[in-house]
């Protein structure tokens, strides 16, 4: 018999949302290897932060990356279990919405609001990746091709955004399996140069260990409240990158066998990230030294490639690295579109965002995301966009981890079938990391933003998050009207 509480059929909720049951479902067309191919761009998320982290932490940034990937494993064990408990939920956005789902009796249910806000926060966390990497593509191309030096960084980034977003929109409109094929191609073209550029200094002797051991922290570093808040802010930005392989779970409704495919895709991507994040920061700092990294804060892989491969090798490697950036743009594009689709199908966002084309692609959401990011490119600085985006990510992670705690503590939810289970007692670990996100990392990122780039980034972050309230109120009214007509 299905478990029920306060009018909610949790077994049915775990298997099928209202809109999904009515035929608006995404199609189950991929296996775990294809999910991994789409998510494998996540290691590239380190690129905007290499120089930024070094400016605050010097060589200790290497340790922060390692701890952040470890945090990812702790959190993703919980998410892996939730993904198999709610096989039709689209990753973090879907988990929170299913766990906090209201009883359907109230027009404006606070449970729906909490779950929907978590999904919106997650959308805002992934969405700006498109703008960040369009800016980086423009920067790398300008540094690589002298003929482009006469153009403004903004015009190059905008042009890159238009070309990349349009191409990916066209390819992925044919279905997620087409996106996976694109992922295979880009993964081959992109991870190889990243590995070559990163490993070459160790083989050529350009890597100098004393560049790391001689500069663990800035000379004025102290373990006082000021620096602890900075460190919390850095951790908030680090998890935006190093924990982001949870995106492999967002394709839950599109895996052929979600019970086994999700954990395989999730932790395979995590293993790649564990290796990549530590090694890239180590190679860059050990080869260039802290001062060398700070001299190229936006594109430190350029001098690393030049030192390791020479002029010709640099051209080849950077072109392939640009392909890697396109890969992570695709990862973010698909993930944020499915977050919007998930909110719309749960009635927490206007239903227009849940529209899918004949190939099962949430095309309206993808068009809106592309246009939004063309506007974000005007920020100009990747770290400013990242800092605003990180506010959304700590909110999404915090609420999702609290959702896991509720799913394990509530007798009705705990009785649901779980093909994959985290270790015993993991709800307490999830609660601990949930509290680390909210409030600690949230306070840290707001404080760090105020020091680095003023209040603009924080204000933008909170404005975007607050925009959810009128959208949610409208969507609840839309659902209420549809029920009355039924």
TrEMBL record:
Pfam families recorded: AA_permease_2
Domain of life: Archaea
Keywords, sorted A to Z: Cell membrane, Membrane, Transmembrane, Transmembrane helix
Residue ranges that the Swiss-Prot or TrEMBL entry lists as coiled coil: none
Transmembrane portions of the chain: 120-141, 153-171, 183-205, 225-245, 265-284, 304-335, 356-379, 385-405, 426-447, 453-474
Keyword Manganese included in the entry's annotation: no
Membrane topology, as annotated: Multi-pass membrane protein
Chief localisation class: membrane
Listed GO MF terms: transmembrane transporter activity
Subcellular location: Cell membrane
The keyword Signal belongs to this UniProt entry's keyword annotation: no
Cellular component terms (Gene Ontology): plasma membrane
Record-given protein name: Amino acid transporter
Organism this protein belongs to: Methanomethylovorans hollandica (strain DSM 15978 / NBRC 107637 / DMS1)
């Amino acid at each position: 018999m299905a478990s029920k509480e306060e009018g909610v059929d949790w077994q049915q909720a775990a298997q099928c949302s209202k809109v999904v049951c009515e035929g608006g479902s995404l199609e189950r067309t991929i296996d775990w290897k294809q999910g991994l191919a789409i998510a494998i761009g996540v290691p590239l998320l380190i690129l905007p932060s290499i120089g930024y982290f070094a400016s605050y932490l010097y060589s200790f940034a290497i340790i922060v990356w390692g701890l952040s990937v470890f945090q990812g494993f702790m959190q993703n064990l919980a998410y892996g279990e939730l993904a198999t408990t709610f096989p039709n939920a689209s990753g973090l956005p879907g988990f929170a919405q299913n766990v906090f789902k209201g009883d359907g009796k109230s027009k404006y249910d606070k449970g729906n609001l909490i779950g929907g806000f978590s999904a919106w926060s997650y959308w805002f966390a992934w969405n700006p990746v498109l703008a960040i990497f369009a800016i980086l593509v423009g920067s790398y191309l300008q540094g690589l091709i002298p003929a482009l030096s006469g153009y403004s960084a903004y015009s190059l980034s905008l042009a890159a955004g238009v070309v990349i977003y349009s191409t990916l929109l066209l390819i992925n409109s044919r279905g997620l399996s087409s996106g996976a094929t694109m992922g295979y191609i880009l993964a081959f073209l992109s991870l190889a140069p990243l590995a070559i550029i990163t490993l070459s200094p160790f083989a050529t002797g350009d890597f100098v260990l004393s560049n790391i051991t001689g500069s663990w922290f800035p000379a004025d570093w102290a373990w006082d409240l000021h620096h602890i808040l900075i460190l919390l802010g850095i951790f908030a930005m680090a998890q935006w990158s190093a924990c982001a392989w949870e995106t492999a779970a967002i394709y839950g409704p599109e895996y052929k066998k979600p019970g086994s495919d999700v954990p395989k895709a999730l932790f395979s991507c995590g293993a790649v990230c564990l290796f990549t994040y530590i090694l890239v920061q180590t190679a860059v700092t050990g080869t260039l030294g802290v001062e060398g990294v700070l001299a190229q804060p936006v594109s430190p892989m350029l001098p690393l490639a030049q030192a390791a491969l020479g002029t010709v090798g640099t051209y080849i490697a950077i072109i392939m690295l640009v392909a890697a950036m396109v890969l992570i743009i695709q990862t973010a594009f698909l993930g944020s579109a499915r977050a919007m689709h998930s909110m719309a199908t749960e009635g927490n966002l206007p239903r227009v965002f849940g529209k899918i084309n004949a190939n099962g692609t949430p095309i309206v959401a993808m068009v809106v995301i592309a246009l939004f990011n063309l506007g974000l490119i005007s920020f100009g600085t990747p770290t400013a966009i990242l800092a605003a985006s990180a506010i959304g990510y700590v909110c999404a992670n915090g609420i999702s981890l609290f959702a896991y705690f509720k799913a394990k503590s509530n007798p009705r939810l705990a009785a649901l079938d779980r093909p994959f289970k985290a270790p015993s007692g993991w709800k307490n670990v999830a609660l601990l990391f949930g509290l680390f996100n909210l409030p600690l990392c949230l306070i840290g990122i707001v404080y760090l933003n105020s020091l680095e780039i003023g209040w603009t980034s924080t204000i933008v972050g909170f404005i975007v998050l607050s925009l959810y309230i009128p959208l949610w109120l409208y969507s609840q009214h839309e659902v209420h009207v549809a029920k009355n007509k039924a």
